[in-house]
Amino acid sequence: MTKLRDRFDTLRPGLLRSLAVLVAIVGASIALIAGQLGVEEPPEAGVPAPQTYNADRTIIVVDEVATEEARDAAAGAVEVVYTTDEEVPLQVQEGIEAFFAAVTLEAYHAQVRPVEEPPVETTTTTVEATPTTLFADEGGEATVVVPNLLGSTEAEALAALTAQRLNLVVGEPFEVSAGSGSQDLVTAQDPPGEVLVTPGSTVTVQLGFVATPATTTTTTTTLAIPTPEEQELSLAEAYGFLSEETRSAFVAVARADLDAVAAGVDEDLLLDQLLDDTNDRITLEYAGDGIRTEELAGVLSSLANGSVILSSRDWPDRAVAADAVAELIIFNLKDNVKADPAATEAKRIEERAAVANTTVEYVVGQDIVKQGDIITVNQANAIEQLLAGAPQTPRRLAAGVVVAAVVALLTLFLRRNRPRLWAQPKLMFLFGLLIVLAAVSARLVGSLIPDGNSALGYIMPAAAFGYLGGILFDTRAAVLMSIPVAVFAGITTGDIGIVVFSAASVLAPLPFVSKAASMRDLRVAILYTALITGPFAAAVAWFFTENNVAGEAAFFGFGGGLLGGLIGLGILPYVDNAFGLTTTLTLLDLTDRNHPALRLLEERAPGTFNHSMLVGTLAGRAARAIDANPLLAEAAAYYHDLGKTENPHLFIENQFGAANPHNWMSPEESAAVIRNHVTDGIRIAREYRIPPDVAIGIRQHHGTSLMRFFYHKALEDRPSDEVATDDFRHIGQKPQSREMAIVMLCDAIEAAARSLAYLDNPTADGLRKIVEQVVGEKFEDGQLDESALTFGDLTKVKQALVDALISHYHHRIVYPNFPGNAAEESGEEPVL
């Protein structure tokens, strides 16, 4: 960092100043046109228009609301898409036919039909087997002999078995082969012989046969016709969902058909007619578009209300039959046309897509919206299109021109009114850096402000530039910072209230930081600044903003004041270190007794350390008297004799109780030792990184004054023409500022006052004479010519120093057995 600062001193100042101005212009311009300035953020719908927007070309925007309504209407007009299941009618008819098959007595028609000729059976098949029980008489075990029935006829076998009390039915153990006529012979037997039966137990034996009749055998089979009650019971088990009346009606029809067959009628039976009528009605119901789910209830209701018409011949009880058919259909009928949600939604999507956008057109010159009017959705979209298509180059160029104009104005002012700042290129670079930071902060705050909430803009940390300008430069330079801060806030926010607030926020901390001499003063400055910016933000927002945001503005304004103080004082140490400046914070750090350089001075040269502390106290008081920088004067006084740490024993203040080495040294040698403490001090200050503004006190606290004691001592030994005055002059520099001149005066006056106090008890008049004498000598020697001190300043300085010395060398109580007071012995009034 030291090398960087040295580069500033070696380059041409004019070139560096020009470069600083250029950096400020370019940096601030880039910061302002970056982000949202490139494309202006369009306002949102539902808020007042910040300005009047006029169409510079034909703008067509989609009316989203109208378009959506048209598409909703098109989708709503789409009818539900249905799908038809062709299997449902077939399934219903199958169910109906199954019911008629269960009702009919067609299986018994042949049995009841009248016989005209004897039937001839060419085949007889009997397959039947049931178990029987073989048992013995009571008593012991018995052996039942099953006779050998092979070759017997069926009748003979049954008779033989019955005689032995064996209830047998021909079954599997016997095989009966075809015989002649009705004689069926047993051809196989199992068991063929005896069967052992245990008393009380049973043995099951199956006897069976498969008879193959002869061609001349005729068998007539007679089936047991179920009774109506049995038939209804069978239907109830399978079709219990039908009413008893319906089941009875169909059973009655089936019995009527049986009676008709018995009477010789085989055609056009009633059940066949009912089945045809039922199928016809089912076919009718499914005809056309079929039965939809939502229509099924109506169809069933129509059937229940007697809509079934029988087309057959006159019925004995037609109404009962029609109701029975209707109920049968009701319990079997199903919907075969159902809504298809997926197909319906696809159709609606298709219809929505087919609807063209509804648009709104703004012709050239037409106002899209006037300032203050509530922006609609269509207007917001049109404004967005307007801004997106607007050429951005003029806006960027305009921002750059504004920045250049502001920087040029500030540069001109600094050149004519702040020559000290203008003469130092590094200060110009620092001032340019603050301008760039002002642009960056304005850009950040501008990007955070949402549409319709300008109160958030009062969080602008503009006060930071008041702290930085006031501490790094001076009050007048800090006032200048309000110009770029306000202009940049206007560019990024477009809010006149925030512009006024930003300018005032820069000025708010100046009364407090300009006189700050401690960390407490700086903390108090932050609080007081926030207490000013909060109410001021509320007043500005109340005046410039139509919306009632004064309360929010006060909150954010207070926060902006606090934030500005924290930011400004937070980055201050880094800035002053980077640019080698001496700020209030730097001086507070230097005047801390724990600073390493002061501790070195206290350890190696305690007498010099105490002398420096007292000189610092005198310098601070004198600087306050003429409104100079007391911290700078005090810090320079603390370190002005830092070089005496190299040879502390050669300086009188560190020789307590010891012989003075100068008694054995030549005047020239003594002068060289005294002169070297300046060069040694400069070197040590550089090692401890003492800022140049403070270290300059080491070079200037003696100026080029003559070391009179050693000069006169040399004249005592040699003629005046042999003694060179320059050999006895300090090799420093005359004070260039009021603060360094004060340090020179305080250094000499403190030493003289200490000598007076050593020889005699000082009085007010004595101290005043010392002050007048020292100031007069320095003035006559020309040491104050370059310090900018005026005669009025000298008068105030002298009075302040006298008052400070009187306070230091005040009268003390004389304790018993202590040496007397010289003033009392002389009769002179002591200093109070």
Write the layout of secondary structure elements.
Elements: H1 2-10, H2 13-33, E1 53-54, E2 59-62, H3 64-76, E3 82-84, H4 87-103, H5 109-112, E4 132-134, E5 142-145, H6 154-163, E6 175-177, E7 185-188, E8 194-197, E9 203-205, H7 228-238, H8 244-262, H9 270-286, H10 293-304, H11 318-332, E10 337-339, H12 341-353, E11 359-362, E12 367-369, H13 377-389, H14 393-417, H15 419-423, H16 425-448, H17 463-472, H18 475-493, H19 496-507, H20 510-513, H21 519-544, H22 550-579, H23 584-590, H24 596-604, H25 606-625, H26 630-639, H27 667-687, H28 692-700, H29 708-717, H30 738-759, H31 764-780, H32 791-808, H33 822-826
Antiparallel strand pairs: 1-12, 2-11, 3-10, 4-9, 5-8, 6-7
Compact description:
This protein is mainly alpha-helical and 832 residues long. It folds into 4 domains: 2-28 and 392-581, no CATH class; 87-113 and 224-338, no CATH class; 132-205, no CATH class; 586-810, Hypothetical protein af1432 (Orthogonal Bundle), CATH 1.10.3210. The protein contains 33 helices and 12 strands.
Describe the model.
The protein is mainly α. It has 4 domains: 2-28 and 392-581, no CATH class; 87-113 and 224-338, no CATH class; 132-205, no CATH class; 586-810, Hypothetical protein af1432, CATH 1.10.3210. It contains 33 helices and 12 strands. The strands form 6 sheets. The protein has a two-stranded antiparallel sheet with strand order 1-12. Strands 2-11 form a two-stranded antiparallel sheet. β6 (175-177) and β7 (185-188) form a beta hairpin. α25 packs antiparallel against α26. The longest helix is centred in the C-terminal third of the chain and has 30 residues, at 550-579. Mean pLDDT is 78; it is low at 119-143, 165-185, 192-220 and 821-832.
